[in-house]
Design a protein that fits this description.
This protein has about 425 residues and is mainly alpha-helical. About 70% of the residues lie in helices and about 0% in strands.
């Protein structure tokens, strides 16, 4: 069974076996990452949480590969402060259970100077969780750590704490460090989110260095603020294809990060900015997100945006991507796809949807959503074909949705709620 299948089925026991027994360090690293990502799904009745934590602690201490050890520490972070402290306690030999937060912060600060980099990484991660102001100075000093893995976790911790006074030190690393560290530094600046942190990212988004521009536009998507929209829209015109695609992913991510009270304003701003950019720079990256992304929020927003920015030469490609998304496992994503399709009438869409509805081999959910769209865009052709379809279909749900579509088209039908 592949790692993808183990992740999809939340096979904790098998994933622990892979982490402990695989001879391939890349496979062990990925197993640790998956175990971390599945934290919210663990159930002691299926596999004890404590056993997963123990396996990750062991990997953090003993694995032969430094990247596997780093991934295991990050996974422990996802299991919470207690899991991290299990590793830190074993490594440092200090008892920190039940200790007051300020005292615990002092113990972890001491771990920042430990000989073993894994303990320094875990200490920095734990300090980011605690967020005590009195540990800011030792954390900032660790931005100069000799191990880039430590510097990455220190930057992440500073972003979690969100202290504005860290911005100058982080900015220095943004210009001078390895690529992986720079990414974490940019994320930290975005998480801090002050005006000076934003200015640094905006400045870097216009840098001569393509990799720096990509890092900046990637991080700006985490801000969830309207201030980042114009910068990201401008990056859609970047000479680098990588930067352009990253900018589109960031715009979609920004929609996910936007606070509820600003979401509508940000959506309008993004649509307005995208209308001024050529379809080549906008539509294909959105289609790619629907085809490739596994992030639910990204797929939802890509489906929503496609109906508002695709036309002319890219209309048919957008329709194809949205039709495939009608059967998405996420109900909101499939609803957004249906709504967007109703905005993209043309390019023989009616015939394609009717063919989908009448194809008994296709997913029923996709056919239900297709009927919803036909209820909005259908013509006399739809009325005629759907009248016969509702008599033939053996599915009560499809029949009900078909009658609803007919009623909206002026034919005989009965009312029902959207997507019933």
């Amino acid at each position: 069974m592949s790692l993808f299948e183990l992740e999809r089925n939340a096979e904790f026991e098998r994933l622990v076996e892979v982490l402990e027994e695989s001879s391939n360090p890349n496979v062990r690293r990925r197993a640790a990452e998956i175990l971390g990502s599945l934290e919210s799904e663990i159930d002691d009745t299926r596999f004890p949480r404590e056993d997963v934590v123990d396996a990750l602690v062991a990997a953090s201490q003993d694995d032969d590969d430094e990247e596997v050890r780093a991934a295991a520490i990050d996974a422990l972070d996802q299991y919470g402060q207690e899991a991290l402290e299990t590793f830190i306690g074993e490594e440092s030999g200090q008892q920190i259970d039940g200790v007051a937060e300020w005292k615990k912060a002092k113990v972890l600060a001491q771990g920042l100077t430990a000989d073993r980099p894994e303990l320094r990484m875990a200490a920095a991660t734990g300090l980011g969780r605690i967020g005590e102001d009195n540990v800011m100075k030792p954390l900032v000093e660790r931005l100069e750590d000799s191990d880039p893995r430590v510097r990455k976790r220190v930057a992440r911790a500073l972003g979690r704490i969100g202290a504005p006074e860290c911005v100058p030190a982080l900015t220095n690393r943004l210009h001078e460090d390895r690529y992986g560290v720079r990414i974490e530094v940019a994320y930290a600046l975005a998480d801090i989110g002050t005006n000076n942190a934003l200015r640094e990212l905006v400045d870097v988004a216009d840098a001569d260095d393509e990799r720096l521009r990509r890092i900046a536009v990637d991080a700006l998507g985490r801000l969830g603020s309207i201030e980042a929209v114009e910068v990201l829209a401008e990056a859609l015109r970047d000479e680098s294809d990588t930067v352009r695609r990253t900018a589109m992913f960031s715009l979609v991510q920004l929609l996910s990060e936007a606070p509820a009270d600003a979401s509508h304003q940000i959506r309008e701003k993004i649509v307005g900015e995208l209308e001024a950019v050529t379809e080549t720079e906008v539509v294909q990256p959105l289609i790619d997100i629907l085809d490739q992304s596994t992030e639910t929020a990204q797929r939802r927003n890509a489906a929503w945006l496609l109906g508002r920015v695709a036309n002319d030469d890219y209309e048919r490609g957008a329709q194809e991507a949205l039709i495939e998304t009608l059967a998405d496992d996420d109900e909101m994503t499939s609803k957004f796809a249906a709504t967007s399709l109703s905005l993209l009438d043309g390019s023989n869409l009616e015939k394609r949807l009717l063919d989908l509805v009448e194809d008994d081999t296709r997913d029923e959910e996709a056919r239900v959503k297709a009927l919803f769209v036909l209820g909005k865009i259908g013509t006399e052709t739809s009325r005629n074909r759907l009248a016969g379809f509702v008599d033939r279909t053996e599915s009560d749900r499809l029949r009900k949705r078909g009658f609803s579509a007919l009623s909206k088209l002026g034919g005989a039908g009965m009312p029902s709620g959207d997507f019933a």
